[in-house]
Amino acid sequence: MNTDKLIHNLGNIDEDLIAEAAELRTRQKRRPRLPRWAAAAACLVLVMSLAVTAEASTGAVSNLLAPLFGCAQTEIVDSIGIPVGASVSADGYTLTAEAIIGDRYNFAVVYSLTRDDGQPIAENAHFATWDPSKSRHGSGGGSLRTVPDEEDPSRMYFIEEWSVSGSVIGRQMSVTMGDLVIYAPDGEDIPLASGPWELTYTLRYEDSGKTLPLWNLPVTHPDGTQYKFKKLDISPVGLHLDFTILDPVWGTVHTLHEQVILRLKDGTELLLEGNGSYHHKGGGKTAKGSYSAMYGIPVPFEDMEALIICGTVYPLELTE
Amino acid sequence: MEDSEIIALYWERNEEAITETSAKYEAYLSKVASNILDDPEDSRECVSDTYWKAWNSIPPHRPGNLSAFLAKITRELSIDVFRRQNSGKRQGSQYALSLSELGDSFGSGVTPEEQLESRELTQAINRFLRTLPKDTRNLFLGRYFFFDSLKDAAAYCGMTEAGAKSLLHRTRKRLKAYLEKEGFTL
Cβ neighbours of residue A123 under 8 Å, at least 6 residues apart? Predict the structure, then answer.
């Protein structure tokens, strides 16, 4: 086959496939996080050994969200996160949306997948397709990753995370997972079970965020781009920035990748990996944009010291 | 402005449609063009031509996804310019590198398969892409639809460059096997 013809026909593929890839391209880079399954397993074992219904209910959300955050900051997780408990079964496997946590612009969902016959789920199993919510919540990006359950081989977890430009609290979300397969590097995927698994739920968690005006805080990116930051929405689990880019360079993709850091009072600096987008205004002389990111661990307001954007330090004085 | 409102302007034959399209998508489309063409002036011209091609296509078209619709046009126009400028000599841009990679798997000669309807081939490619895990599909399209550099595509897919290169190699092989199974001779 002529390569030119292949290239030409790739240009005529379905627009939803192009849009899906385009959305990812405009996201900031998301590095895979370190697996937290060890901590998650420890939390689950602790709950199982306690086996006290009343106490389990008070800590239930942080246990359900343990594949996401481990045992970190369970008080915050329990106060913001909410259990979901929506399940759907197909072909001997049950997918359950266990719990959600988030803020106005970021959220994460922990799903569990269990084998109904109690047998181990094959290693490297994953869904062949992931069709996230059709609901509109602005631009931004999301990801789906797997976390094994070291204690129970008949269960594995999936974590879906989104950071977007529009407020999501109260919105109804849906997700459709396609067939369950084992990825074969040099051949066809090996089918495990036929989907789809479809779930719908509402982001009903509490709005724990605060809004701070940044008064057009001027910031210069290392590449020379001038930003003015207008507003910060910040919560114990994530943040959202609204900004203007001055004189955006034609043909350049402006990005805040590796430029936003949350500094804690103990000196720890969390390099955030979020999603940003912008669009041109005023005939291209400026661009209006936003950036949203979720932290790797929950952070109490009183532990936050400063936000560092492109090296510019903005002190944070927040209390619960 | 929402895409649906921009499309409505096109249907009303309101030239604000082009202004709004430019305001919202110029950076995005210029990246598509500049990945194929080294010369900024050529890229700018292709993006401008994209607006006019969209103007002449809507109506009758009503794109389901405006950004993807525009990206297709910019890509096609830019490839045409590249071909005119580089007949017999392809080097330099990410497009040229991507073409070279695909050439390793699919050859570059003219074969009877070129007589097959493009629509059938496109449909087969669509079906193949839908069999891929999402990350693999987006990496493949980032490299071979948008012609992003391997480094950039690996970064936004959250992979190492070596991992992305290996995955692209396997995916090209899978595409070749799939198309052969579908009756396309490669």
Answer: A182
Contact A21, B142 (CB under 8 A): yes
How large is the ipTM?
0.82
Question: Could you count the other beta carbons within 10 Å of the beta carbon of residue A50?
Answer: 11
Q: Are A108 and A161 in contact (CB under 8 A)?
A: yes
Task: State pLDDT tens for residues A283-301.
Answer: 778 888 899 999 988 999 9
Where b means 16+ CB within 10 Å and e means fewer, A157-172 reads bbbbbbbbbbbbbeee
For chain B, list the domains and their CATH numbers.
3-85 (1.10.1740), 94-181 (1.10.10.10)
Q: From A28, which residue of chain B is nearest by alpha-carbon distance? A: B156
Task: Please check whether residue A32 touches B, CB under 8 A.
Answer: yes
Residue B4 CB contacts under 8 Å (≥ 6 apart), including other chains = none
- A34 near B CB under 8 A: no
| Distances from the Cα of B176 to the Cα of A195, A225, B182, angstroms | 26, 43, 10
Give SS3 for A191: strand
Question: Is residue A238 within 8 Å of residue A291, measured between CB atoms?
Answer: no
Out of 3.40.50.980, 2.30.30.60, 2.60.40.1630, 2.80.10.50, the CATH code matching A31-202 is 2.60.40.1630
What percent of chain A stands above pLDDT 90? 39
